[in-house]
Structures are given as structure tokens and as C-alpha cells.
Specification:
This protein is an all-alpha fold and 164 residues long. It has one domain. The chain is 71% helix and 0% strand. It contains seven helices and no strands. The longest helix is centred in the last third of the chain and has 26 residues.
Length: 164
């Protein structure tokens, strides 16, 4: 018996949470580093643009790990809209807007990934600050790594039981 190639079901793409986490964390950290470099300049438009792009990092990391880079622009727009308010936005607005604009992700998984990433990021930020003390030069790198931890965690939780 021969198999028909025209009626074959598409094979599901399994996305590694580790690769999505690495890609999402690196992309988010690079955007956060760009924000830290733009901060001494007196151009608030660039600050706002960099802060909005932080929410795109986990979405692009997931798309890179899935091999579908740039295929779902609705999720990218949801990531931008979810980053309007820096800390509360990552916790509540980011999962909500990504889920509303791209229904293939579970809202619960997005929220848990964002919550875990926020806890990891704040924990790292405070721990790094307690180790370095009163020298204010630690704030920029610690914030970039904390944002990378959030992005990696959020991207890892985007994998899993996604709907077609």
C-alpha cells in the first residue's frame, strides 16, 4: 500500500524550551543593553522605543527556536503592546496581549512564564545589588541580565501545548 503525499497530515514541530529560553533571553538582554546605552542620551523617544521592544524578545526567541522567524506578527505586536508599563506590563499586560492577538498560546502558560521570569529577574537584580553595594555602576548590567532572565523564562513557557 502506498502512502498519499497530498493527504498527509502535517508533522507537528516540537520546540525545545531550552533553545527558546536561550534565544529569548539573549534577544531580550541585547535590547535591554541597548536601552542602558541609550539612557545617558537626552532622547526619550529612543528610551520608549527600547522599552517597548523588550516585550518582543521572548516572542522572537520562540519563533527562532521553532524555525518560524517572522511568521506570526500578531504575537510580536502583542509583545510590543504588553511592554507599555515596565514591571506591571511584563506581569499582566504582556501575557494578556500576546494571548489576545495570537490565540495559539495558552494564557496560563504565558502568565506563569512571565511571573517566574519576573521573580527570577527581581531576585537576581537584588542579589547582584546586595553583593556590589553602593557602587551605582551595577544597575545597568544587572537590569539587562534581569530582563534577559524574564525573556528567557517567558519564551520557554511559550513552548508546549500550542494550538494549530
Amino acid at each position: 500500500m502506498t502512502q498519499s503525499r497530498t493527504m498527509a497530515a502535517p508533522t507537528p514541530i516540537t520546540v525545545s524550551p531550552w533553545m527558546a529560553s536561550v534565544y529569548g533571553g539573549i534577544i531580550t538582554a541585547i535590547i535591554a543593553i541597548a536601552f542602558s546605552f541609550l539612557l545617558p542620551m537626552s532622547i526619550p523617544v529612543l528610551w520608549i522605543l527600547a522599552l517597548l521592544l523588550i516585550g518582543v524578545g521572548p516572542v522572537l526567541g520562540y519563533q527562532l527556536a521553532a524555525g518560524k522567524f517572522g511568521s506570526d506578527w500578531k504575537a510580536v505586536i502583542g509583545g510590543i503592546l504588553g511592554s507599555i508599563i515596565p514591571i506591571i506590563g511584563q506581569l499582566i499586560l504582556w501575557p494578556l496581549f500576546v494571548w489576545l492577538l495570537s490565540r495559539k498560546f495558552s494564557f496560563g502558560r504565558l502568565f506563569l512564564g512571565s511571573l517566574l521570569g519576573l521573580v527570577l529577574g527581581i531576585g537576581f537584580f537584588l542579589g547582584y545589588g546586595f553583593m556590589l553595594g553602593q557602587d551605582p555602576s551595577w544597575v545597568g548590567p544587572a537590569w539587562a541580565i534581569a530582563a534577559g532572565l524574564w525573556g528567557g523564562s517567558a519564551a520557554a513557557f511559550m513552548t508546549g501545548n500550542e494550538k494549530a
